[in-house]
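input
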Amino acid sequence: MRVYYVKYSKNRSLYFLFLLYLLLLITISIWGTVPTLVLFLGHYQEPATNFIPFSSILTYIMNFEHYNFSIWFYNLFGNILAYIPLGYFIALLFPTFNQARQILLISLFPITALEIIQYISVMGVFDVDDVLLNMLGAWIGFLLYNSLAKIFKDK
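output
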């Protein structure tokens, strides 16, 4: 009976961490990393979009010297790093989803939802490149989970 309680409370803690992660992700995606009055009033006068795949990514890579490093890093690697936990948590908490295709399809919903919210709220840009980079992050999280699961399974 005690083993069940430990397992149950452990799972409950993981779901709680996942919820905290999602709330943090929403906050950062909508208001940015440093909320200010300007952020609450919006960055853009009208909704902005980029529907051309790899357009933003190539712009940042090809024009590296024209961007502040933090802007360049945040827009390329920040989008990847922020979503690694999503793929990891989905694989960890929902073991029935054990294929990359499943993880990517499930990840697509919150990623696209946040991009749409940014567009509607005029607090950001709907950028297909952000979706691609976020999906890459979720995929890396899934690969990380599988790698660690194999390592600890063998021990």
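quick obs: The chain has one domain: 2-154.
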